[in-house]
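Retro notes - structure team

What went well: the batch runner handled both jobs without manual restarts.
What didn't: labels got mixed up in the shared folder, which is why I'm recording both outputs here explicitly, each with its sequence directly above its tokens.

Job 1
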Amino acid sequence: MSSEATGKSTLIVSSGLSRDAVIIRLDGEIDAEAVPLLREQLERVWDIPGRRYLILDLFGVDFCDSIGLNELVDIMHGCEARGMRLLLGGVQGVMARVLYITGLRNAFEVFDTFDDALRHAHS
């Protein structure tokens, strides 16, 4: 059942730290119902000092609509305003197709795996 039918977000958001990177792992659907949950999590981590990277692990994302894509663009702008770089890790399947079809793949720093994104942040 979709989040539209239930009125509840079907996104699970978790976060952590690794050296100079904030990591946010997303599992489920990035849509209108999920955006407030994602924003709430970002408010908790935006201003952690000494972090140069925000890595979004998108491997577990199985749906992303235009509202979700818009939120990813807003997150990128938020990173830029804070002097951080946004890395998208685990971009495969649905997310790879969505970013490619919309032409946004080139707007982001995209990595096939989360580990690749993390290695990039630590290099």
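Job 2
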Amino acid sequence: MLKYRLLGSALLISVSCIPVGIAPSNAQVTFRPPRILAPRESTGGASRDGNSCLSAHTETQQASVTPVIPLNRIGFTVKERPTILVYIPQTSARKALFSLQDEQANNHYQTTIALPAKPGVMAIKLSEYVPALQTGKNYQWSLSMICSAELEPDSPLVNGWVQRVHPPVNVKNSGHLSPSLELVSHLANNGLWYDTASVLAQLKQAQPHNPTISISWQQLLNSVGLNAIANEPLIN
């Protein structure tokens, strides 16, 4: 079981219905951020906002590539290969370089991924061929936009950290469950950011007009300072 102290006040999202999976009549989603700090940046910075291929900011659109992670730039997962969410603004870039490194800057995985044609929150799903993350170790992921024929020093870049942990008892056998707000509640209550965000994103994509799910998603992102992208669409 995870053991950590809570940082600040927990986010409480009240919901009245659970439309998918196990479905009690009432549930609550409470994200409890653990007290954990990201390792020192091996690349000298958490983000690089080059603008060679990004559109200008508008009132309704965030201009920067934005990692969907808490302010401390690290989150927990119980998955061997977690899903990572990143907001991609309007851009002329058609692909990006995604990489994973350990704390010693050893490459764990690297690949080129296609970028969406429209702005929105994109899910980066690690395939079964990616080596499993080791429990208790920190990994830094990064996404660098490829704005021309090759990667350039000023290409927009974002990164974050992920740590795989042993699953708590109340989520240990949840891998076979369908996405539901009850499952999200268990994940969030145990401070599992990557799993909470990815399952809730799945729900939102499956039921885009469900107000309960939409509000839960907005409040989850607002709770970690991601208000600017809380209303942006989820894209494949």
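One thing worth noting from job 2: The radius of gyration is 17 Å.
We'll revisit the folder naming next retro.
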